[in-house]
């Protein structure tokens, strides 16, 4: 009887000791809800950070949602449906221009070039940009980074996008590829892996990269409301550190290894195609090698917006960009 009591008492004691430890562990794990503007191989470091456990190492539990479009992503952030948005930096300027009481702050850059490609319906062996003149060009949504960079590049090649060609930009982001597949347009501006899928299926042919033509720009950045960053400073720092770990991993590993790591996010895409796309983005320097969004890139962004007639007001780098967090995690 005494022996049974001792065993029972020992079991109770173990449970009493385990519960507080489990509770502490649970409290240390911070859930962070990310809303990504689209699902794309362009965002490979984000998926690497999740799959390689870099977020988990920092005590973060990530809930990832694809919010399909910059306007929807920013609405989700401002309404507290998500904590962190992965979207073009131009959206933070739009919010600031509306005199928001709680501005959106860019704190970790993920991509540093445009991620779209020019796809032709017909195969072109010797492409030149002037071939777009008098053609029908299926561009991206007005006011978004893809459209602004697209117009910027066209102008760099002496093409007036509103007079030298038939520019279509009233189709919803999610339906652009379907519109081209159904016969709309001679040329289209597409993200990967859609551009390569179209090429593989013979529906189109990649003839140029907007990323190599436009230069360095904070194309996609992790951002959050200023209030969230103030209240969750340590969480944001852990988040940025996990992203930096992923960026280094992507820089140090092959396109094949990266493709294998992110393949769960592209189940309907062949692994070889994912590898091709990753290699293309790596070759043109699209993946940022660290999370710092520097002033030169910020100014290039605003110049592109200004050229497109979409810059509501010029905003100093220090107002909407926090580099202290990124610089701290890089030490």
Automatic annotation (TrEMBL):
The keyword Signal is assigned to this record: yes
Keywords: Signal
Top-rank taxon, per record: Bacteria
SUPFAM superfamilies to which the protein is assigned, alphabetical: Periplasmic binding protein-like II
Localization of this protein: Periplasm
Entry-linked PANTHER family: ALIPHATIC SULFONATES-BINDING PROTEIN-RELATED (PTHR30024), TAURINE-BINDING PERIPLASMIC PROTEIN (PTHR30024:SF47)
Similarity comment text for this entry: Belongs to the bacterial solute-binding protein SsuA/TauA family.
Protein's name in the database: ABC transporter substrate-binding protein
Organism: Robertmurraya beringensis
